[in-house]
């Protein structure tokens, strides 16, 4: 029976950047830090110029003849490249609509769990559909469900913007939140001044449950 193949669990070796002494070409076309052309010079001379400027000699085009190098601050260059890659990845993220479901009679612990779920979705760049599900005669408590959703929107205002206010959808009530694009500022204080009193005094989930019990 042939021996079973072994899997190499070692981390893959990263290729080191072609900078300074790692550049093996003898003749190079060199671009200075300010973008000016220094022409075709030998490797030793290019390294000497980069050292005098306290910068790095970086190979930017290996396929050219002769290869092209640029004198630059490689640490700063690498940081900017990584930053651009992160921004590109963020922009390429396909926005999805995630859903957070709850009953209008929800206890404080479950409410905090829903808050946590929504925060994770919003931070990932997804929209959040908040749904209050009614069963049987619970449909008569739409006003309490609306208050609960508005409470949720207020608790998530640092991470989200309300794209769609609470509304009936069949036997459910829904609200749509999208990730906040701009941080909260003093405009929040101005908005609170003109908000209806009913919105500024939205009861907590526990209070909602208590009010419902009193009605029944």
Task: Give structural notes.
The protein is an alpha/beta fold and 216 residues long. Among the domains are: 20-74, Ubiquitin-like (UB roll); 97-182 and 196-205, Translation Initiation Factor IF3. It has helices at 43-52, 74-92, 108-123, 142-155, 187-194, 197-200, 205-215, and strands at residues 27-31, 37-42, 56-61, 68-72, 97-103, 127-133, 160-169, 172-179. The strands form 2 sheets. A 4-stranded mixed sheet has the order 2-1-4-3. The chain has a 4-stranded mixed sheet with strand order 5-6-8-7, with helices on one face. Strand 1 and strand 2 (37-42) form a beta hairpin. The N and C termini lie far apart (75 Å). It is found in: Cytoplasm. Pfam families: IF3_C (PF00707), IF3_N (PF05198).
Task: Describe this protein with a few key phrases.
216 residues; alpha/beta; 8 strands; Translation Initiation Factor IF3; 4-stranded mixed sheet; Ubiquitin-like (UB roll)
